[in-house]
Amino acid sequence: QVQLVESGGGLVQAGASLRLTCAASGRGFSNYAMGWFRQAPGKEREFVASISASGLTESFARSVQGRFAISRDNAKNTVYLQMSNLRPGYTAIYYCAATTVRDAVIDDADSYTWGQGPQVTVSS
Predict the structure, then answer these.
(1) Is 45 exposed, middle or buried (0-12, 13-18, 19+ CB in 10 A)?
(2) Parallel, antiparallel, or unpaired for β 68-73 and 58-60?
(3) Alpha carbons 68 and 60: distance in angstroms, whole number
(4) pLDDT tens-digit readout, 87-103
(5) How large is the average pLDDT for residues 46-69?
């Protein structure tokens, strides 16, 4: 089982880039599919991006395709979310997630391990 600690959130202006980091502690990181979700005020938590345990397969929500990139470094037990050309509509709490149940993190599943969800705020 792993524990997830996120960093890299903050306040940025529209058009800026930001990289979120999710650092995992514990055993077996290379066996986990990893991903990111976000929750905006007044809305349900929604899928953002996923990467398979091997790092070879990536998935993105249609709303962020072409703007976000996901990557992982299994030697460092770390997954990243690179966000480019940020818009105010991306303001949300961003959660890192991990699972060994399937090789993708897409659904908001009860079985996932979650990070603490730092805030990302994009101003106009």
Answers:
(1) middle
(2) unpaired
(3) 8
(4) 999 999 999 999 999 99
(5) 96
